[in-house]
Amino acid sequence: xxxxxxKKLLAREEKQLNDWxxxxxxxxxxxxxxxxxxxxxxxxxxxxxxxxxxWLLPIFGGEPIDLDDDASIKNIELIMQLYNYTNQQILKQxxxxxxSIEVEADVLAHFQRGNxxxxxxxGMDTALQLxxxxxxxxxxxxxxxxxxxxxxxxxxxxxxxSRTRENFKKEFKTKKTTAEIVEGFAASLE
Length: 190
Hints:
Blueprint: H1 11-21, H2 33-44, H3 52-55, H4 70-91, H5 116-136, H6 142-156, H7 161-171, H8 178-189
């Protein structure tokens, strides 16, 4: 039996959702669309199927959402469609980043909110912070554990520049420049 196919959001639906998330009626800590995409990727790759009651609230900066108007209901439906589409792509192993990576001359620009790479990684990092306990329940080999740590580091590398610098000082001794490290992680993401 074939599964139900969930459609990708149309460009106008993505714009509508982003505008709504970034509007003045939402918390200033609400995600933008790219942060939402990274976050949903992280939620959908968690080893357990999580109920929306667990993962929905952080999208709005931890603030409860008012469901008394049609716009809110429609946009929550778009979030659920994006969640289902992301999950479907992961299960089919057809997931790809929702943006193209071009390393900028100013490598620190990749760590600023509004940069697609930073925003997506921030969403992914937020999902990992929320779901870390679910990963602890899985019994892995030491090799798998190291592989997962490297995946998480790669996927969240651009989420927080100061944390990334601190992790590199502690864990890696390298003669590479910041630009070389950024280029390496950007290439790894693709």
